[in-house]
Amino acid sequence: MKYYLTTPIYYVNAAPHLGTAYSTFVADLIKRFKKMEGYDPVVLTTGSDEHSLKVERAAQAAGMNPLAYTTKMAAEFISQWAKLGIDYDHFIRTSDPKHHETVRWLFERCQKNGYIYKGAYTGAYCISDEAYVNDVTPGEPCPTCGNPTETVTEENYFFKLSAFQKPLLELYEKNPNFVKPDHRRNEMIAFVQQGLNDLSITRTNIQWGIRAPVEGHHVFYVWFDALISYMSAVKDDDFWPADLHLIGKDILRFHAVYWPAFLMAADLPLPKQVFAHGWILHEESKMSKSRGNVVRPGPIVDVVGADALRYFLLREITFGQDGSFSYDALLQRYNSDLANGLGNLASRTLTLIQQNRSGLIPDSPGSPEVAEAARRTTELTMDAFCAFNFSRGLETLWSFISVIDKFIVERAPWKLAKDPSGFAQNMLDETLYSAAEGLRIICAWVYPVMPDSARNIWIQLGMKTPIESVTFADLHWGKLVAGQKIGSVAAVFPRLDASAIAKMEVLEVQEKARQAELFGAAKPVAHAAATPEAPKISIDDFVKVDLRVGRVVSAERVKGADKLLHMKVDIGEQHPRTIVAGIAESYAPEQMLGRKVVIVANLQPRKLRGIESNGMIVAASLEGGKPVLAGFLEEVPVGARLK
Ligand code: MSP
Predict the structure, then answer these.
(1) What's the pTM?
(2) Residue with the nearest Cα to atom 13 of ligand 1?
(3) Is the CB of 20 under 6 A from ligand 1?
(4) pLDDT at 410
């Protein structure tokens, strides 16, 4: 039976980082695990999301045409996935003509079934989120991300999403596994229960996209385009529907609401499951390019190997929840769990067999207690892995490593070896067989998580069949063949000291510079020239804007909004103003305290994340960059007007 799974397709305007590599690692793990379970073929699709205004502008800033730009960026993803050892089957690019055809085909099916109509839209559009924004005046910051919005007025094609409220609720009800984990499913139910607005699925203001098969210039909205890539990738084979879409929680609504609605409208089979994982945090916030706190996988792989990184992320973070990355925690886990844990068990066991049994696996059924512990470990790990609870599965496996370690210490094979009696030699055989057989079972289980290291130990154990062909049947006790000659023994996870962190940090700086060059640094001058000139206004218009000098008296982050700061600003009035501004990625709250800023004081109040903001802070807005606050070189009194 086939199993088809996907990672999200990645935006090509940012290089891969640990956050974006995370879904890909897990997808690779699940692919290997599903093969062990007996699915055949197991097919994994990943790819690149290449269209949109954002990419069009990034290409323009880099002085390239969009296709040349995205080809270069897609190649970077392909080479990074190779470095991380990702065993994918398809890398779909949304610029692929095969994909364009599929998108048009799906649109036409929806149209034929009466779910597409033409309508007009005027409103605010957030380029950063690639989404229309309700409840803001065009030009004001997006309430989700804080970036400026743009006004768009368009005649668009709409998708009748509103028709799918009931069918979607029925889907979640009938198929409780459609959205996982459960708390995310509840979020989707609550969202759909509120009612669904129809969705504008074409744009006229974009060139770099898939042309809709309609009259005039209409390009598909990026999500109507991107989601369909999951189908385009396997269109020539018979792999649709997908068994699993692995995604981050921030893109769940697109996958759990829009995507099944598009498919239902086109009368096509739905994916079986959408699993939304949490975020990798770094320095306490979501790792992301715009925040500037990304850690790149390449340097880590160069120092500790891809397997150690995979192990760390899967062991440290409960899959489905957020979790933090730090070099210190990585090194600690490496030394305690890999060097001292699995690595030590492997070298100890194999060396004992080498020294005492000439490298041959002894003939013994093994210890019944260790056999029972192995059986129980397999049972628990199976439950955990099947539920995608990888951290629990790994914890169970490492408890088993401790059981074997303790068993070896108690049996003291080095003492038994010195006793020639039949009893002692039988005990020695039993001890060594148990340790080796336990190690083999652990190896088979660890393989989906750390394929290279597991293969390495597997070969040292002298196994004849490749580890890639291991199935659940091989997890039974007693499959290790007596008399098998082990391979040459070498440390799999040599211990590391703090200099490993320094090495990773130095490489990270180099990698950051390499990628910055590759992705093209923002070119503000070129952008300024490309920005259309604003219409002329009279001085009377200008004086309508009440610009004041203010001093920030308090500042804090807005919960759940990465980009927003909630501040009180003294502008010489009786009470400081409350101002919410999208500057949190450039300025920490403590940097803002006491700082003099320029405020637009007579803007109509507006609510951002439930907080009423009474004014706007003035900042330079750079293409692809962060806002830079306006300020003064000389001393200016609070409340002074700018004219
Ligand atoms: N292009 C869309 C997906 C389209 S799928 C049809 C997109 N791309 S993305 O590059 O911005 O993000 C890709 C995936 O990376 C998302 O699942 C997102 O959740 C994930 N992550 C990005 N940063 C992350 C972390 N810091 N932590 C974990 N995953 C995160 O969205």
Answers:
(1) 0.80
(2) 10
(3) yes
(4) 98
